[in-house]
Every structure is written in structure tokens, then in C-alpha cells.
Amino acid sequence: MTRMAATRDGYGQALLDLADNPKVVVLEADLGKSTKSLHFRKAHPERTVSCGIGEQNMLLVGAGLASAGYIPFASTFAIFTERAFEQMRNGVARPNLPVHLCGSHGGTHTGTDGSSAQSIEDLAVFRTLPNVVVMHPCDDVSTRALTMQLPALGKPSYMRTARNKTPVLYDGREAEIQIGKGVVLEEGTDVAIIACGVLVSEALKAANRLKQEGVSACVVDMHTLKPLDGALIDRLVEQCGALVTAEDHNIIGGLGGAVAEHLVSNTLAPLERVGVPDRFGESGQADEMLEVMQISAPHIAKAAQRAITRK
Amino acid sequence: MAGDYMSTSIEEIEEIARKCRVEIVKMVYRAQAGHPGGSLSEIDLLAALYATRMRVRPSEPKWNDRDRFILSKGHASPGMYAILAEMGFISHEDLKSYRVLGGVCQGHVDMKWCPGVDFSAGSLGMGLSFGMGCAIAARLDNSDRRAFVMIGDGEMQEGSVWEAAMAAAHHELGNLKVILDRNRIQNDDFCEEQMRMFDIPAKWKAFGWNVKEIDGHNMQDVMDGLDFLEAEENCNGPSILIAHTIKGGGISYMENNPSFHGAAPNEEQYNQAMMELGEVEA
After folding, report:
1. Looking at residue A82, what is its pLDDT?
2. Using 50, 70 and 90 to split pLDDT, how confident is the model at B6?
3. Cβ–Cβ of A60/B164 closer than 8 Å?
């Protein structure tokens, strides 16, 4: 039986693990219970700063702390990080201060809270900021591993985590996780499915389905959208000759956009992008939302077939 | 910390401010762009702050235990560059790089470009939050360094200022000291026309701050105000000095003139300014 866990739990655990570093501080905006920074708060209240429901202030308090050598981890819902976008742009990214922003409850997978809470543009907007590393891991183990690597990064980052549980893929495989390096979870030769976040496990399901149809699909967890692992994409183009991206994010500007940008500047290959079709969400269960948005495993498999026919 | 300042006389500070005013006008005139009005309104405050209070090392601008100064109204950069040059963080030659490609004196103060600048400004409503972060860092470091933040009155229209005001009082940041340059003019017009702000001292008091009002161009008043910010009894929480100033203060035709929020003088106006500042004889 596959273990199920939420990426936000991996984040919360990593913060606790990082507490040995006295420079690590945690900033909250009244959602610590949800983003899972609450564990750090309980253990280290003296290094936790409540910013109330004030995300703009939180980002810049983080910048001030970072300017004095601290390593702030600020979290809120993905959607509310966007409210502080310009603070992230002008106050954090521009002076390249290592503030680590985590947006939990990202994507339509968030579910029943409805469209106001379902950020579908966070990865795109933060990807446009110079200096900022953008990540969207797929399970708690990789989230924890990536978060643990952030203090050594020396630059700002944005990480999207998810509210709901997904299959754990990296138990005992933490060592394979490295910021900026995609992970090939399954080798294949006909098509490469490059996924991030909650759609990585859907991509694996799609690969299984494709296998039954006689198609060999490679599956990649592209947990880091920026910097993008271009070398891996080049290899996939050569190896498979057709690509699919899969993300619980607007079809515009996210992982699909990043891969497309890479392809047009390097070796071209057919690319099908699976993502939220440029529309807002609604209330629904996580699995229902993947269907509504046409981003679940069957849709990924169909996209793979389309990509192959375009070779 | 009151009294812990260099033996600089009122007259000496006033002379520093006068020299800074000359540099402000020169910078904006050379660049034919920039923000003279808010630089001139803030400069007496900056001169007193830097000459007598800021614990900094111009030869070691990144010294960790330095007091921080955050110019949140970052467009008033000529004022800051002038005082940084006066204090020896940068050279007077550097002032010629204001708004010039590759220059340390970027259009808005930038910590990545200019020694002595602690915050990359340019977008209003951000400096107070950053200063709050600096103040918390000092507390975590068990350091007695302070974070001084200068904000503008028009800037108070940004909602994020009040997020920070509320949070700083909640966290009882006695090492956070704000100076409000109340010059009554913003980009488009007088503040009163753009957005009435009603009782400003009452607003800050209601947010839990220690508040004092001064005449920001009367140097004795300025010194008393800085004493207030540093006074032990006001270190129980954040404090704000509301300095009533004159936009463009010190240059007759710029004073209280919204046109000189963000415009450079022409040659004739430049010559007149130099005359009024005692640089050339009438």
C-alpha cells in the first residue's frame, strides 16, 4: 500500500529539522496551522514572528531579517503570496535576499475552498522574477529534502506545496533530490512526461495506462521549475522525441511554459501541455477538480498519444 | 542612548545640511531629473541623524552592529547620497553618478549599489516593514543597534505601512525609530487634495506608538526629537517623530511647490539656488 502524505507536512518537518541552524527564523501570516510552520512555532517561539494577516509586511520583515544574516522561511497560502508579489519583487528578489517563501494549498487540487483559494498562477508569476528559485515538489519526502537545501542556496525561493495528500514516491530516496535537477522516475522511449507537484503521481498512472497501450513513457519529476533542468530536457528530446508537461497550474506560464521556452531555444520536439485550461476553478474534491480541469492521468495519457502522433 | 553623540554643534549640523542642499540641487540639475522637493524637506533631519546619532562606520559600511537607516521614501535619494558623501561613505565625486549608467547613485537608493545604503527602496510603503525585520534581527542578536526608518506623508496612503505599524507595536520593537517627513506634498499635488489624512499623530498613537511632533527645519527641535526617539522611556515600543517640514525647503521657488516633487531646475533656477544657498554671491 502506497503511503499517502501532503507536501505541506514535509515542509513543516523540514523547518523543525532546520531549527538547529540558529539563523533560521519562521514568519507566519495566521496560517501556520495550515502551512505547517506551527511545529516550528511550538518548538521555537522566540524565532517565530507572527505578522498577523499581513502578507506584504511579512515578506519585507523577512527581507530585513535576511539583510542581517538571518534565513527567514515565510509561508501562507499560495494565493496570498501573490498579494505580496511586488514586495517579493522589489524587496526580496531585487536585492537578492535569501527569503524563502512557501505557498501552500496551491492549485485546484486544494479543492472545496473554491476558486478564490486555488492559485493557478503562482508558479508563473514567481518564475518571472530574477534571482528567485521556483519549486513545486510532489511528495512530503522531496519537499522536506528540498527545503533542507534552502539555507545553503543564498538566494530567494518560492515553493508551492499542496493541501491534500498524494502518494509518497521518494521514501528512502531523499538523496536523489537536488534543487534544479529533475528526477527520472520511470524510463521510457516513446514519449517523456514531465510533471510537477500533485500531477507527478498522475503522470505515473498515465505511464502505466500507456504501457498497456504499447507505449513506453518516461516520467520525470521536474520539482524545480527555475532554474529549469535544460540538460535533462535535451536528453528527453533525444531519447523520446515527444514531450508532455503536466501541472495543476494554468496552462500559461508554468511548467509547460518553461519547457516550451527551453525547446524553442534548443532542439524542437512536439510538446503537449496538460494544465488548467486558462480558467478559474470551483469547489470540489481534489480528484473531482483534476477531472474538471482535464489534468488527471487519462488526460495526460491522451496528451502523450497526441504528442507521439506529432513526431 | 540620548547624549551619546559626537560633539557636533547646532551650527555645525546646519552647515552640513546647507552643504547637502547644494549637492542635492547639483545632482538633480546635472541629471535633469530626480526629486529635489523631498530631498530638501528631509535633509535637516538626515544631517542631524547622521552627524549625531547613527552608530556607523563609513570605512566598514557592512559592520553588522551598525544602526540601520532605511529611506523608505527612496525617491528622495539625492538627500541621502549627499549625507552619505558628507559622512564619508561615498565620495563627492560619486555624487556625479546620480542616475548615470553604472553609477553608485541609482535613481532610487539601492543597497546593492551604494555603500551605506541598507535598503533598496523605490516602491513606497516597504521600508517600515524592512526596518521591522532589521529591528527583530537586532533583538535576536542581542544587539543594541537601532533601525531608523524615514517615511513620507504621502507614503502613509499605502496600506502596507499600517500592516507594519500594527505589527511593530505588537512586537514591542523599542529599537525601531521612525521619522515622518511631513512635507504635505506628494507627486500629483498637495496631500490634502490627494488623500486627506486627518489626525496623523492620533493615528500612530492609536496603533500603539510613542509619538512626538517637531519642526523638521528647526535644528534644536530636531535634536530634541531625536532625543525623544532615543529616550529610555520610549524604548518600550516603536516611536515616531512627526517632523513638519517644507517640501523644497531652503530654495525659495521650490518651497511648497508641487512642481518640484520630481523635476529639475533649469539653468537660471540652478544659479538662483546656488545664490540662495550662499555658494555664489548675489
Report:
1. 98
2. low
3. yes
Test A68 with B130 for CB contact under 8 angstroms.
Answer: no
CA angle A53, A54, A55 (to 5 degrees): 115
How many domains does chain B divide into?
A: 1
- The 10s digit of each residue's pLDDT in B121-171 is 999 999 999 999 999 999 999 999 999 999 999 999 999 999 999 999 999
B133 contacts in chain A (CB < 8 Å)? 60-68, 72
Domain of residue B141: give its range: 10-276
Q: Is B137's Cβ below 8 Å from some Cβ in A?
A: yes
Q: How far apart are CA A229 and CA A242, in angstroms?
A: 17
What average pLDDT is seen over chain A? 97
Residue A295: per-residue pLDDT: 98
User: Angle CA(B87)–CA(B92)–CA(B96) in degrees, nearest 5?
Assistant: 135
Chain A residues within an 8 Å CB radius of B159: 56
Are B120 and A68 inside 8 Å of each other by CB?
Answer: no
Query: What is the structure's pLDDT at B130?
Result: 98
Q: Which domains does chain A have, with CATH numbers?
A: 4-167 (3.40.50.970), 180-309 (3.40.50.920)
Q: Taking CB atoms and an 8 Å cutoff, what residues of chain A touch B119? A: 64, 67
Question: Does residue B3 register a pLDDT over 70?
Answer: no
Quick check: A17 and A144 in contact, CB under 8 A? Answer: yes
Mutant choice from A24, A67, A94 vs B, greatest count of B C-beta within 10 A: A67
Q: Between chains, do A91 and B129 touch, taking CB under 8 Å as contact?
A: yes
Cβ–Cβ under 8 Å, residues A160 and A198: no
